[in-house]
Amino acid sequence: MWFQNIGKHFLLLREWNDLPDFMRVPEVLPYYKILEQKRGSLVIKRLFDICMAGILLIVLLVPMVVIGVLIKLDSKGPVFYRQERITAYGKRFWVHKFRTMVDHADQMGSSVTVRKDARITKIGAVLRKYRLDELPQLLDIIAGDMSFVGTRPEVARYVRHYSPEMRATLLMPAGVTSEASIRYKDESRLLDVAEDVDAVYIEKVLPAKMEWNLKSLRQFGLFRELFICIRTIFAVMGKDCT
Predict the structure, then answer these.
(1) H-helix segments, the chain
(2) Taking the alpha carbons of 154, 130, 227, 148 in that order, is the dihedral positive or negative?
(3) Across the strands, what pairs with 86?
(4) What are the beta bridge partners of residue 84?
(5) How far apart are CA 23 and CA 117, in angstroms?
(6) CA–CA separation, 208 and 211 (whole Å)
(7) Which residues of the chain have pLDDT under 70?
C-alpha cells in the first residue's frame, strides 16, 4: 500500500481517468493494467534512475567537458543539441545530446539519420558509434523526462503515426536504451538505401521497433531492465549478448 501511495506522489503512473484522451483507448488498457500491478517496481525504477544518473554525471563530468571541447574544435555550432521529443503521456520535452551534426542539420533533411549522412561531423561519427552523444540525457533522466530503459523518444510528427496500441508506450517515460534500440542499433544502415527515408521509417522501421517496445511493456520487470542496460554496453562494444 505504501508503495502505491509513493507511486501516486511521483506520478509514475496516472490513474486511468487522468490519462490524456488519446491514450484512454481499449488497446492501451491491457498494458495499463500490467503496470498498475507493478507500481512498487516503478518507484524503484525511478529511484534507481535518479541515483545512477547523479553518480554518472559526477564520474563522467571531466570526460564530458573534453567531449565538449572536441566538438567546438571540430565544427562551428553549439556543444549541445536540443530537439523537441515526446515522452510519457504525450508530454513534449527538449532532449539533450552532444551535437554530432553540422549546425542547423535538422533544417537540412530528415529527422532520421542514415549511416552515411553528410551532415554528421568527424567527431560526431565517433560519438554516435559509441553512443557518447547521449551522455547529456543523464540530465533528462534526473528531470524525469527520461529513464535509462524505455521507448526511445520520437519527434511529434512520428508519434502522430502511432497506432492506438503503440500509444501504450507513452505510459512510461522515454528511455535512453531499450530492447528495440539493441536490435535496431544499425538502424541507419537499413535506411541507407531508402529513397524516402521518412516513409520507410514510418511504414516499416517504426512498427517493427514498436513490436519490441510493446513486448517490453508486457514483460516489464526490474531485472529485465538491468539486463537490457548490460546488453546495451556489450552492443556498443560490438559484442552480442543475448
Answers:
(1) 2-10, 29-36, 39-59, 61-74, 122-129, 137-143, 156-159, 179-183, 187-191, 197-200, 206-218, 222-236
(2) negative
(3) 92
(4) 94
(5) 35
(6) 5
(7) 1-11, 104-116, 186, 188-194, 240-242
